[in-house]
């Protein structure tokens, strides 16, 4: 996947412009999806224009209305949304420099590794032109399974960044590895992405 640097384009004056403060948040069907509103709220507070993409199962753990209220834009759930100028995964593929998938289930990561495109978020990942960040969230046993380790390594080779998971209390009540990285940690890392990019842009001028 291209870095944010690769996405810096020339403006009308011929000067290099900084990547827009836009993020697409992809939400999959993990219990950790209940934190999606907190993530959206934090991104908007940081000044990021945010669009949400939900998988069908994600809607069992968070609501479209909540995310629409916080992001000021209805989540995209159908690739043929009439309010978009073309199929959703194509419209969003070049809209933002970052696709943040949080949480990402073991099943979703497996499909990413296999190149599946059977839902909107998977299709978007295939078409996305910027940086893709994956934040795993699952049971400890699932995270430690060799298949999951293989799939994570595969998408890492694709150029995706993997943030987490952390060790802590899981949905099962057990303590183990598989807990989604905390939203505040995401915010700090995202902030650093743009900070590093700003420094690089200034040096290039």
Key descriptive features of the protein:
about 200 residues; alpha/beta; Rossmann fold; two-stranded antiparallel ribbon; disordered C terminus
In a few lines, what is going on in this structure?
It contains eight helices and seven strands; from the N terminus they run E-H-E-H-H-E-H-H-E-H-H-E-E-E-H. It has helices at residues 36-45, 64-71, 88-93, 106-114, 120-127, 140-144, 146-157, 183-204; strands at 22-27, 49-54, 98-104, 131-136, 161-162, 166-169, 175-179. Helix 1 (36-45) runs parallel beside helix 2 (64-71), helix 1 packs parallel to helix 8 (183-204) and helix 4 packs across helix 7.
Query: Topology as H/E string?
Result: EHEHHEHHEHHEEEH
Overall geometric form? globular
Number of domains: 1
**CATH topology title:** Rossmann fold
CATH architecture, by name, is: 3-Layer(aba) Sandwich
Give unreliable regions as ranges: 5-16, 199-205
Number of strands: 7
Portion of residues in helices?
A: 25-40%
CATH homologous superfamily annotation: Flavin prenyltransferase-like
Strand content: 15-25%
Give structural notes:
This protein is of the alpha/beta class and 205 residues long. The longest helix is centred in the C-terminal third of the chain and has 22 residues, at 183-204. Helices cover 39% and strands 18% of the residues. It has a single domain (22-204), classed as Rossmann fold. It is globular and about 35 Å long. Helix 1 runs parallel beside helix 2 (64-71), helix 1 runs parallel beside helix 8 and helix 4 crosses helix 7. A five-stranded parallel sheet has the order 2-1-3-4-5, sandwiched between helices. A two-stranded antiparallel sheet has the order 6-7.
